[in-house]
Amino acid sequence: MNQPEILVLYYSRYGATRDLARLIAEGIESVPGINARLRTVPAISAVCEATEAAVPNEGAPYVEYTDLQECAGLALGSPTRFGNMAAPMKYFWDGSSSEWLNGALIGKPACVFTSTGSMHGGQESTLLTMMIPLLHHGMVIVGLPYSEPDLMSSNTGGSPYGVTHLAHADGRAPISPEEQRLAKAQGKRLAETALKLLQKK
Known about the structure:
With 201 residues, the protein is of the alpha/beta class. It has one domain (5-199): Rossmann fold (3-Layer(aba) Sandwich). The protein contains seven helices and seven strands, in the order βαβαββααβαβαβα. Strand 5, helix 5 and strand 6 (140-141) form a beta-alpha-beta unit. The longest helix is centred in the C-terminal third of the chain and has 23 residues, at 177-199. The two termini are 17 Å apart. The model has no long low-confidence stretch (mean pLDDT 92). Its cofactor is FMN. Keywords: Flavoprotein, FMN. It comes from Polynucleobacter campilacus.
């Protein structure tokens, strides 16, 4: 029998959100009995003729709506765009009405994560607004508790609403040790929650 999988879905322009996604996936797979499924969304353009290749040149494959139906939980990540998720990720969720009507995500656990160029660049508002479509889908939101000591000591990223990363203006700051530990802890907590909920079915 195949092990359940948690969908780690992200959009990343310069690589920081992708790096967080990989760390969260590592945390998920530290829990026996569950796997991570990394997926991304294609960039979009206001110019109708501009399209992405059918298959990404590198990194995770593009997400399909069947991934939502098949997952046991979801970790959702996007860089911030004026305090909100990036348009490519919003575009994907705007097309998920069929999954909403079918209740594909009801009762499944979810967490959110983001990366910003500045400390006060909208990290927490991005996390909160990313939760909104997940709540509409009936998901159970899993945050990060203050039992994680790095939440109190980090001077880069970190939030009880979800993992964050301070990438700086050029987007090149590496994931700090505190951010790495928090990302893995969030993935682990999400995986443990998903398994507990599966056992109750």
